[in-house]
Amino acid sequence: MTLFGSSGIRGIIDKSFLELVFEVGLSVGSSYRSVVVGCDTRTSSSALKHAFISALLSAGSRCYEAGTIPTPTLAYAAREFEAGAMLTASHNPPQYNGIKLCNPDGSAFDSAQRERIEEMVRNQNLEMASWEVMETSRSYPQAIEEHIDRILQDFGNGFKIKVVLDCGCGAASLVSPYLLRRMGCEVIALNCDPSGYFPRGIEPIPENLGMLVQAVKATGADLGIAHDGDGDRMVAVDDAGRFISGDKLLTLFARELKAEQVVTTVDASMAVEESGFEVIRTRVGDAFVSEELRKGGGFAGEPSGSWIFPTVSYCPDGIYAAAQITRIACEKRLSKLVDDLPSYPILRGSVWGEGVIMERVERRLMEMETVPVSKIDGLKFSFKDGWLLIRPSGTEPKIRLTAEARNQAKAQRLYDLAIEAIKECIKG
Asked: Which of 119, 143, 167 is the last residue of a domain?
């Protein structure tokens, strides 16, 4: 049984998933004696949260409820407890929900912790505590204010710029608008009602952010910011109304933080190395990135919009990242900074499919062109002037594709090779 993907446990909401959440809660409660719990704005999150809390209390654990908050806010609150639990499916569509589990330093449960939870659920080793040691849940209402105050310690106020902010009606709606205004920004809020009904695709990718781009151009804003459903991701639009790729944001943040060593994933651009950083690459997913960053390094990030600032916590923090990009935009025009960054043509996409046998994909591609292959995460083919990555998604039934090369034609050729190989293997 494998419950955990690249970022927690996720699934479509039904009776069996609700039962799974209770079982995971019993497992966590029997291992961790104090747990802080939060949830995102999804319509199903409150039901899952109460099921999880009931399980914690049934196991004899002491539970503190932080309410509806972003994942990084919950992770920062976890410093006061043995563990933190967030009920969220992050950027997945609204019919999904899930659980993210974190340690007191904000890092996601590591491989050993995940295996222990899976083993307990698999073996049904889920004993309840006796009635006399069960307690009532407690409230932890100060989580948002504590997170904002911690971020303001590093940034203060006086940032007199105009920012368009799109929270997608997710959990960041409860934090980012207030943080940026306290920093001194003029905030034009889009989709900042924490309703749980997502008015756009909740994943902060270019095709979902047309309203943000238009608003930045129409208002003459200095910056546009967008979050996903639980606020652990942050992406940006520059003052010219252009979406800034995650690869460029990675380099921009690393330079701002003067990081010598950067931890990132196998799907990040080769331009990161060429910017002069020592780069350590991991599997895609914040659990793997934070696990590596805990060994050392000044900064970590993923081109999907996840940024980890270890001085605060080892959880991707889209709220802190919003403050960081605001400071950068206040010091110099973002469009100029972005244009000065190295970049190569890079194509990202996905195809729907489960059960694709990666060995068959590898054989088919090697028939087309023999090159070195890395298997850190999926299959990464290294060509003379570019690379191609094919990997199963850790959060959805998709195969993710990434191709980068020194010219557009080569990148497109590599991407098309991947599509051809996958389709042939699905048919066969």
From this structure: 143
Domain end residue (candidates: 143, 173, 196): 143
Rounded distance between C-alpha atoms, residue 272 and residue 297, angstroms: 15
- State how many domains the chain has: 2
pTM: 0.92
- Considering the domain boundaries, does residue 372 fall inside one? yes
pLDDT of residue 125: 76
Average pLDDT over residues 210-233: 98
H-helix or E-strand containing 427?
Answer: helix 408-427
CA angle (234, 12, 21) in 5-degree steps: 90
All residues at 6 or more sequence positions from 209 whose CB lies less than 8 Å from its CB, including other chains: 166, 200, 224, 226, 235, 237, 243
- 48-53: long-range contacts (C-beta < 8 A, 24 or more apart)? 48/13, 48/18, 48/21, 48/87, 48/97, 48/99, 49/87, 51/18, 51/21, 51/22, 51/25, 52/21, 52/22, 52/24, 52/25, 52/85, 52/87, 52/99, 53/25, 53/137
Would residue 246 count as lying in a domain? no
User: Active site residue: 6, 58, 90, 290, which one?
Assistant: 90
pLDDT of 174 strictly over 70: yes
For residue 288, is it within any domain? no
- Confidence at residue 221, expressed as pLDDT on a 0 to 100 scale: 98
Confidence of residue 354 (pLDDT cuts 50, 70, 90): low
The residue behind tokens 């004899």 is 60
Closest CA to 305 of 248, 240, 387, 368: 248
The answer to whether position 52 is within a domain reads yes
- Is position 130 annotated as part of the catalytic site? no
Domain that holds residue 365: 346-427
pLDDT tens per residue, range 146-156: 999 999 999 99
Q: What is the CATH number of the domain that holds 359?
A: 3.30.310.50
What's the CATH code of the domain at 95? Answer: 3.40.120.10
